[in-house]
Design goal:
Layout: H1 8-23, H2 27-39, H3 41-72, H4 74-99, H5 116-128, H6 131-144, H7 153-176, H8 179-209
Helix pairs in contact: 1-6, 1-7, 2-3, 2-7, 2-8, 3-4, 3-5, 3-6, 3-7, 4-8
């Protein structure tokens, strides 16, 4: 059996892929930023932690064989794409509706204020229903695992990625919940919500019409 250092290149490659996928603009990042600016630091941090744990859930499922299921049953991926596309359309509707209102209504905060667990659950749902995140984890686990790799490799990858996600989303929430950011958001809220709405609509259309 190979020594642990022999698995490090693959693990580092998988970790790098996760970092790039995480920092790329998408529903999870926009949800965290929008909630932090519209509902405050605590709400943004809790939603961000929910996103990170949703990512962790996908990592665990993938490591346990989700990639095999998706490869064996094409209908599973189609169902995931449809569910994810409809969810993005719902986010687009909420953002565009908020953009038409003068009173602050943070679309990504989910309208009415909710408790810490509510924001956490919202973040978890945003990530767990994102088919792109599922496909990203399939790629990440595939990059990190070489033939004959021991059982500890996948858990180490998932744990490292989860901790990184928690740190990244929490930092985003803290930065964008500052007073300066809040004032800027108040002035530009409707424009921001409009941009978010268009982004989510285009993402939904692209997802629902893609063949991959």
């Amino acid at each position: 059996m190979d020594s642990p250092p022999s698995y490090l290149p693959g693990m580092l490659l998988a970790y790098s892929a996760f970092v790039l996928a995480t920092v790329s603009p998408g529903p999870a990042v926009l949800a965290t930023l929008g909630t932090a600016m519209g509902a405050g630091r605590r709400a943004g941090v809790m939603l961000g932690l929910g996103v990170a744990m949703g990512s962790c859930s996908l990592g665990v499922l993938t490591a346990l064989g989700l990639s095999v299921v998706l490869a064996s049953y094409a209908g599973a991926l189609i169902a995931i794409k449809i569910a994810g596309g409809l969810y993005l359309l719902w986010l687009a509707f909420k953002s565009l509706r908020s953009a038409t209102r003068r009173q602050p209504l943070p679309a990504m905060a989910g309208g009415a204020r909710r408790g810490a667990l509510g924001y956490f659950a919202r973040g978890w749902a945003v990530q767990i229903s994102n088919p792109k995140a599922i496909l990203a984890w399939i790629a990440i686990i595939s990059l990190g695992l070489k033939p004959g790799a021991p059982h500890w490799v996948a858990p180490v990858i998932v744990i490292a990625c989860t901790l990184t996600g928690m740190a990244f989303y929490s930092l985003c929430a803290v930065v964008f919940s500052s007073a300066a950011m809040a004032r800027g958001y108040a002035r530009a809220r409707r424009a921001i919500d409009g941009v978010l709405g268009v982004f989510f609509m285009l993402a939904a259309v692209k997802l629902l019409t893609s063949k991959a």
